[in-house]
Structure formats: structure tokens, C-alpha cells
Amino acid sequence: MRSGGDLADSFVHRTALHNTVKTLYAQVQAAMQTSTALVQAGVIISAYEYASGQIDAAYISIAACIRMAQVLGINVAYNNLADSQEQMRRQAMGHWNLWWSTIILERFIFLESSYADRRTPAALYPNTNIPLPSDDKCDDEYIPTSVTLESSITQSSSILSNFGRQAQAIYMLDRCLCETSQFNNYDLETRLSKLQSFDEELQKRLSESMTPVPHEPGLRCDLYISYTKTYYLVQLWYP
């Protein structure tokens, strides 16, 4: 672990630990077959790199996770959410939540990168009739429910976990990125009309997200950040 430098310095220590973990991770990747555990470890590494400002490294790490997940079929785990065997259903839920983790984290990294205007996310947002992520824990008062984005629009947000709400927020972000990429093809009146409509929907979603739910008390800053980033992108396009 001592790769040089004074480990009393927390920054040096974190850097040394990160380098060691990345080295071990690369060795395991080279020596073993791709597995769910490798994808999970890669997501954690990528999240650390994002949080510590290593955006390029985080982008590379999450891209590798996405490719491994696709090889394992984790990106289509929703097909087994209705399996007759409980063990298979729980495994599918875990895999599906993992795939959603890569989708959400990639968007966070993507927006902080300097190449966001030249690339598109590798983990495509699922169709609106595909289930949102759901917590795999439950108690007497709350039982997690698999709902689609399409149905969640017309139902109370209280049926969603915060994970599901975050997926909703990322959907709004994806829509914003898609719409604004086409804005140069619109005249001013059309652009303003689309911006106003998007603005109103964003404010509605943000208001709903601030409504507390009994099974998950407290605030979720990551959820508000997603909506705020999207709102900021919308405001940039106002003349």
C-alpha cells in the first residue's frame, strides 16, 4: 500500500489506495471471467473517481462496467422480474438495479465532462414501458413495487423508492439532452414553446420529488441535483 509519499497526508493515502485498487481490479479482469461482482466493483471505483474529480478516469471506468454488464445480460434483467421462482426474481431485481446504477452514474459523469456535446451515453435509457428500479427491502408498511416510467407519470410518486425517483429524474435529463441537441433546427417561436413546456414539467417534477414519503424519510440531494442540472441546461437555451 505504501507507494511513496507520506501516508499521514490523507490525499496521498487516498491516491495510493485508489491506484492499488485499480491495479488489483485490472489483474482480476485479466485473470477471471466477467462477473456481476466485477461490474459492481467497477461501479464503486467509477463513483469514487467521479466524486474525487477524476472525470476522465470515471468515464473510462463506467464505460467498461457498461460493456461488461451488456455481456452478462444485466441490461435485460427486467425480463426475469416476473419469474415464478422468488430467488430468480430477487436476483433479477439486483441485476436490474445494478444496470440502473450504471445509467444514472454515467449521466452524472457525462455532464461534468468536456466532451458531453460530442458524445452520447453508452447506456441507453430504457423504453418507458420497462420497469424502473426498486428497492429490494420491504417491511409491514412498504412493499417495493415494480412500476414503469409510463405508469409512474399518472400514479402517486409515493409508490416509488428514491431509486425510482432518481430514474425519473434521469429520464428528464435524457429528454433535455435530446431536445436541446435539435434546437438549432427550430425557429425561435418553436424553441421558446418547447422550452416553456419543458420548464413547466421540470418544476412539477421537482415539486413532486420534494414531497416526503413515509417509507423513506429525509431529503435526497442526488435527486435534486439531477433536476437542477436539467433545469440549468434548459435555462441556457433561453434567448
Q: Summary?
A:
The chain is mainly α.
What's the β-strand tally?
0
Quaternary structure annotation: single chain
Outline: globular
Q: Summarize the amount of helix as a percent range.
A: 55-70%
Proportion of residues in β-strands:
under 5%
Low-confidence stretches: 1-5
Structure in words:
The chain is mainly α. 60% of the residues lie in helices and 0% in strands. It is built from 8 helices and no strands. It has helices at 10-31, 36-51, 55-72, 86-112, 149-152, 162-180, 188-209, 221-236. It is globular, with a radius of gyration of 20 Å. Pfam families: Fungal_trans (PF04082). GO terms for molecular function: DNA binding; zinc ion binding. Keywords: DNA-binding, Metal-binding, Nucleus, Transcription, Transcription regulation, Zinc.
Which properties best describe this structure?
0% strand, disordered N terminus, mainly alpha, globular, 239 residues, 8 helices
Note the topology.
Elements: H1 10-31, H2 36-51, H3 55-72, H4 86-112, H5 149-152, H6 162-180, H7 188-209, H8 221-236
